[in-house]
Amino acid sequence: MIPLPCAPGVGYKPQHYSDILANPVPVEWLEIHAENYMGAGGRPLAQLRHLSERFAISVHGVGLSIGGEAPLDTDHLSRLRHLCDWIAPASFSEHLAWSSHDSAFLNDLLPLPYTAATLTRICDHIDQVQTTLNRQMLLENPSSYLAFAASTYDEPDFLTEVARRTGCGLLLDVNNVFVSATNLGYDPRDYIDAFALAQVGEIHLGGHDEDEDDHGAPLLIDSHGAAIVDPVWALLDYTLARSGPRPTLIEWDTDVPDWPTLAAEATRAAFALAYARDVPAMCLPGAAE
Amino acid sequence: MTSQSIFRAALLDASVAVPAGLTDGAGRPAPKRFAVYRNNVAVSLTEALEAGFPAIARLLGADNFSIISGTYLRAHPPTSPLMMLYGADFPTFLAGVEPLAHLGYLPDVARLEYALRGAYHAADATPIDPATLPNQTHLPLAPATQLVRSDWPIFSIRARALSDDAPQPPVRPETVLITRPGFDPQAQIISPATADFITALLANTALDSAIDIALRTDADFDLTAALTMLLAQNAIISLTTEVPT
């Protein structure tokens, strides 16, 4: 298995196929949503086959419902195994969330109370995933819009315990930390300080929308549909200063921009990674272009 | 009910009370925060339906489509995490929406759009070399090959819905053949005899019997034109004297 490079990656969108092949700089790896590549054939699989010959691929699941109260969907797990066997990705990741219940797939990442019962269930499901796929997986922290009165763990402690019990790695979405911290009223740097940074195999960055709640307090919505805001870039710097360089992904899934706009976001991530490496940014590959 | 059953019911039905025990960061109730999830589910599924049924969305207009898709997604949420499959029963649902009864063609146009989506994701296949085609054999067709029959001019209605440059649909039934010569599904109107011919091939009927079936529909059935068209569409993937399974 080739690990993801400690370099910028982007969430792959088919409309960027030709641009990526012509000039990917500074992007060195691509992330795909697993469920979009589970058809029998056609252009999606042909593009993925071609891209995987040139780029490290991260397979990011959005449909396994690891936090679901029901057993995991073994048909879906088989499809994931088939995809991972075929493409041999550098990384597989999923979410600390649920999305399926009572035969309905709700197409959203839904929240969980952080309790001992949830912890046991999540760890059992991750054991099953890692055994079936015969690989370590990464688990991503969610965006939170609300809290559960029933929770007995803080989120970083909960994720640390999941990683300790299962041996899984963690995917740290810095935008999600910023969104959750704003929405629930804590300092995002305290969250980073409490996070098991040694277990982080990948970082996500994305844009969000702004709203307000019933009491007029700011309510940020994780939309992946806009540029990354300056406070999130600052939080990335804060994180990388403590974790060291990590594979860092730009997620832009709705109102997808043209390739130069997306590559510019990736370039900003490349500079943050270079700074974290204590390498002068002028030495970055492609910096002279 | 489990907590996720309660959550699920409230997500899909705004008249169901927000689940207990959900708060803001200070421990205060904050129902608007639960509404974020309600909105995410409704918007993401509506967008999936709009992407999957663009002609239906244009024919109904944004406001009507939003109402119709909102009703559909609450009664028929996806049953699989593969969103490429979502909407298989949307055509049947449309047929049961009474205020749309005067638009009799809508369900068939929706079936055409779903068939095009299926063809996009169908398995790849290698077409045969026409020089090797014998007279009497089975001709398995590529997995993407589909027929959508309608009493309505569904091809013309879809074309008009998606492009203002397309002509006014004529008053006639249209049967549409979907093929995928490369990675882009192609739709074309075919004659009733050609449709019966291709239906027979899709059912693994031998070539000579399929020709007989087509000739019974139309004594002037043009075999050469039908085979040439299928070959040009890369739809014929094998020839065999065995009955394909």
UniProtKB/TrEMBL annotation, chain A:
Organism per entry: Thalassovita taeanensis
Family that this chain belongs to: Belongs to the UPF0276 family.
Pfam families associated with the record: MbnB_TglH_ChrH
Segments forming a coiled coil: none
Family annotation (SUPFAM superfamilies): Xylose isomerase-like (SSF51658)
Protein name (database record): UPF0276 protein SAMN04488092_10998
NCBIfam families reported in the protein's UniProt record: PRK05409.1 (NF003818)
UniProtKB/TrEMBL annotation, chain B:
One Pfam family of this chain: DUF2063
Family annotation (Gene3D superfamilies): DUF2063
Segments forming domain Putative DNA-binding: 4-94
Domain of life: Bacteria
Full protein name: Putative DNA-binding domain-containing protein
